[in-house]
Design goal:
Layout: H1 3-17, H2 22-33, H3 38-43, H4 51-62, H5 67-71, E1 73-76, E2 79-82, H6 95-104, E3 108-112, H7 118-126, E4 131-136, H8 139-152, E5 156-160, E6 172-177, H9 190-193, H10 209-217, E7 222-231, H11 237-246, E8 249-255, E9 261-268
Length: 271
């Protein structure tokens, strides 16, 4: 079977399973078989494809395993990040946290719940003068962040621990976080629910438990004129702003490319 024939058949099956970009996914799977690029696949449709290997990848995708886990990478802020089971897959909307850091140009930054390291590493590379520290409670996330930092040539301090625990007594100009924010019982797609780590998704009955902890504890870790920037779910901006306001912060909202309030920026109103 040729590459072109296989891509056509895979496209039909993926479309039937509900994939939004079936042909793109089929082409990327074929490229992964050859350890090559999508462009190479598109320009070599008459090459023979190892059908067993290709069908093995296709079977995994038809079972709703995330494409990023199958390919082993996901692009974030224009760079390839290694991803795998046990680590949250980077999303485009999270790039907003990097954009905020670029605007603020902090001298030091703490990323709480770093996952793959996409935010911390991107900030370190986009703002080279910034000293970046990344924390996560998951050993797999810490290992993945270290792997990505090395691969991308980023200088990031990576620590294992629960939220602020590893940085006791330290202060930062900027604290960023994309914490778990899904409420227990909320409906999710099969590829998220069945494959991505629950500890990186769920945050109590209302989805706000991590925001409460961050809002309560941030002031002890902020330098003078420091700020906190957190990603929020599409209906959570007002509630998260109220949590920070109750702790003495002034907040502002930032929209993502879809026009949704996606980040809350909080500045402590010191006496």
């Amino acid at each position: 079977m040729t590459i072109g024939e296989w891509v056509n058949e895979a496209t039909a099956l993926l479309a039937e399973s509900g994939a939004d970009a079936a042909r793109l996914e089929a082409t990327l799977l074929a490229a992964h078989v050859f350890r090559s690029t999508r462009t190479w696949v598109l320009t070599h449709p008459d090459e023979e494809i190892p059908v067993l290997a290709a069908n093995g990848l296709l079977t995994r995708r038809l079972a709703h395993e995330p494409l990023a886990y199958i390919l082993g990478t996901r692009e974030f802020f224009g760079r390839p990040f290694s991803v795998g089971p046990g680590v949250l897959i980077p999303r485009q909307e999270t790039e907003l946290l990097v954009e905020i850091a670029y605007e603020l140009r902090p001298a030091s930054c703490l990323d709480l719940g770093c996952g793959s390291g996409c935010v911390a590493i991107s900030i370190a590379l986009e703002v080279p003068s910034c000293r970046v520290t990344a924390c996560d409670i998951s050993p797999r996330a810490v290992d993945r962040t270290l792997l990505n930092a090395t691969a991308l040539g980023a200088s990031v301090e990576v620590l294992l621990g629960d939220l602020f625990e590893p940085v006791a007594g330290r202060r930062f100009d900027l604290i960023v976080s994309n914490p778990p924010y899904i409420a227990l019982g909320e409906s999710l797609s099969a590829e998220v629910r069945d494959f991505e780590p629950a500890e990186a998704l769920f945050a109590g009955e209302d989805g706000l438990s991590f925001y409460r902890r961050i809002a309560t504890n941030s002031s002890a870790h902020l330098a003078d004129d420091g700020r906190v920037a957190v990603e929020v779910g599409h209906t959570q901006a007002a509630a998260v702003s109220e949590l920070f306001a109750a702790e003495g912060f002034k907040t502002e909202l930032r929209k993502d490319l879809a026009g949704i309030d996606r980040a809350v920026i909080a500045k402590l109103l010191r006496p």
